[in-house]
Amino acid sequence: MRHHPTETTLAAYAGGALPEPMGLVVATHLFGCPACRRLTAMAEAVGGTLLEDLPPAAIDDDALALVLARTERPVAPAKPSRLQGGLPPPLNACSFGPWRRLGLGLRWRALNSGSHVQAGLLEGAPGKSLPRHSHAGMELTCVIAGSFRDGHERYVAGDLVEIEGEHRHQPIIDASGPCLCIIATEGVKFSGLLGFAQRLLTD
Which of 46, 67, 77, 91 has the fewest Cβ atoms surrounding its Cβ within 10 A? Predict the structure, then answer.
């Protein structure tokens, strides 16, 4: 793999500052990237040292009970993708909705999350392209299987794509086979007719 999260994103992940869906995309990349795991461990170590220097702070009396209650909630396992036997370990315990078609050769499976960040699995057939679009904020994509091209860059399994702001692009799935990605985005703004329809629906 050649494409990795920025150091800023890794530091935010290590400090727990990323929204949960975006942290999940980074965790999927870390599963297959020893170099980024080492950087994250360094960031966590630095953060731990800084915390040790802070004065103690009071917490609510029921804080421990609330944390334990969250760990006891049942989590629905994700169904395997038809592209491969299963998903990377960071995704295995996640709950996803049903597959929904986005058009010919594309389908989306939303992550069940209460976050404002939209996230899910995107699967594309060989040679298919996504609609041209830009973003309302940050978007993180980790390739799980297959590959796609975006401009002059090619992204393969394990690569993480980090895009922010008004960057306009149109990813295209490689003709060699289908592609499966986990994506988290703060918002997508389509171009052309799709963009016009999107503005009508949101105005």
Answer: 67
* Domains, the chain, with CATH or none: 1-203 (2.60.120.10)
Q: Read off the tokens for 165.
A: 């702001």
- Taking the model in full, what pTM does it have? 0.76
Residue-wise pLDDT for 110-146, tens only, equals 999 888 899 999 999 999 998 888 888 899 999 999 9
CB 4 within 8 A of CB 35: yes
Question: From the CB of residue 198, how many other CB atoms can be counted at a distance below 10 Å?
Answer: 16
Dist. CA 11–CA 192, nearest whole Å: 37
